[in-house]
């Protein structure tokens, strides 16, 4: 079986698949070579072993602790990657992964007091780091608050029994769950909150709320995972984009990245890392003013020809796209 794209050079075989909740599965992968990664990082997965559909998933396993490399994936009905991984991939199949990527990790965090906050599938890097901290920094004082829709949605339910955790269920809270959502009241009960490093992962509005609340409560070291970006509604005014092939005109609010403009208008674009690292979102701009925050995977010739990484392209005015 040949490598679908040089971006995903790691071939891994599905050893087994475990159903975590009604709509979340963990795939345990065997990698025959040593695969270097850090707790909390993610990898791009080549979907259907193709060159042009890559999706980012957290490596929910923990280096030096877990027996397998694991991906924990929620099924999203219109998600090409998650549908394939959760419904079609079988034991014995091969997947192709990129190098591990991302800076959302605790292994260089000097503070021994941490608060890890997760919502839904955002628990995947949090569990990876929790195991890592237990093994390599057993002296660390680690508090975890994990928000779920209902008690049946607790991912890694058995494993959480090994660690102190506050579980919060929005619906049908049973014994062992706080009822509702993460609140200022719950945060205020965390001992020494202001002295802790807070790390959070979950839907973007949840992380934004967490950031403003913990900072208001005195936290100064705050980190969030960035690739869970909701797709915005299509705009009808603002920056204008004229696409030549296929011919189409669309709009996005001033301040949007080119990727946000494309996605909110349902224009075809691949995006995995959303951080200017993977190169998936390469797009050609024919004319218009823009700045870029990453050109990492582009050659000088491509840059000269107007190629940008859409996730790292900040339009300063109307753009014409190829
Ligand atoms: S999505 Fe990875 S570089 Fe843009």
UniProtKB/TrEMBL annotation:
Required cofactor(s): FAD
Matches recorded under InterPro entries: 2Fe-2S_ferredoxin-like_sf (IPR036010), 2Fe-2S_ferredoxin-type (IPR001041), Beta-grasp_dom_sf (IPR012675), Cbr1-like_FAD-bd_dom (IPR008333), FAD-bd_FR_type (IPR017927), FNR_nucleotide-bd (IPR039261), MRET (IPR050415), OxRdtase_FAD/NAD-bd (IPR001433)
UniProt-recorded Gene Ontology molecular function terms: 2 iron, 2 sulfur cluster binding; metal ion binding; oxidoreductase activity
FAD-binding FR-type domain residues: 7-107
Name this protein carries in UniProt: NADH oxidoreductase
Keyword line: 2Fe-2S, FAD, Flavoprotein, Iron, Iron-sulfur, Metal-binding, Oxidoreductase
Domain 2Fe-2S ferredoxin-type: 237-322
Entry's family note: In the N-terminal section; belongs to the FAD-binding oxidoreductase type 6 family.
Protein species of origin: Kosakonia oryzae
Tree of life domain: Bacteria
EC number per UniProt: 1.6.-.-
Cytoplasm recorded as keyword: no
SUPFAM superfamilies noted in UniProt: 2Fe-2S ferredoxin-like, Ferredoxin reductase-like, C-terminal NADP-linked domain, Riboflavin synthase domain-like
């Amino acid at each position: 079986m040949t490598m679908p794209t040089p971006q995903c050079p790691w071939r891994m075989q599905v050893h087994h698949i475990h159903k975590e909740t009604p709509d979340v599965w963990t795939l345990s992968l065997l990698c025959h070579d040593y695969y270097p990664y850090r707790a909390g990082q993610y990898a791009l997965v080549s979907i259907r072993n193709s060159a042009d559909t890559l999706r980012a998933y957290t490596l929910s396993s923990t280096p030096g602790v877990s027996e397998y490399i694991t991906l924990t994936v929620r099924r999203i009905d219109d998600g090409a990657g998650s549908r394939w991984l959760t419904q079609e991939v079988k034991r014995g199949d091969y997947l192709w992964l990129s190098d591990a990527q991302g800076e959302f990790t605790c292994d260089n965090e000097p503070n021994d007091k941490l608060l890890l906050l997760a919502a839904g599938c955002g628990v995947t890097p949090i569990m990876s780091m929790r195991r890592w901290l237990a093994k390599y920094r057993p002296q660390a004082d680690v508090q975890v608050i994990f928000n779920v829709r209902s008690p049946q949605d607790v991912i890694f339910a058995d494993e959480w029994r090994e660690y102190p955790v506050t579980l919060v269920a929005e619906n049908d809270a049973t014994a062992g769950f706080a009822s509702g959502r993460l609140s200022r009241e719950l945060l205020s009960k965390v001992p020494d909150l202001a002295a802790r490093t807070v790390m959070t992962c979950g839907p973007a509005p949840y992380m934004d709320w967490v950031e403003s609340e913990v900072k208001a409560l005195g936290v100064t070291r705050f980190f969030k995972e960035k690739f869970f970006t909701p797709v915005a509604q299509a705009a009808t005014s603002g920056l204008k984009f004229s696409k030549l092939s296929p011919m189409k005109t669309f709009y996005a609010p001033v301040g949007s990245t080119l990727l946000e403009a494309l996605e909110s208008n349902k224009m075809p674009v691949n995006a995995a890392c959303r951080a200017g690292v993977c190169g998936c979102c390469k797009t050609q701009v024919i004319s218009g003013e823009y700045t870029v925050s990453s050109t990492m995977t582009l050659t000088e010739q491509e840059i000269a020809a107007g190629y940008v990484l859409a996730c790292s392209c900040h339009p300063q005015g109307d753009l014409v796209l190829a």
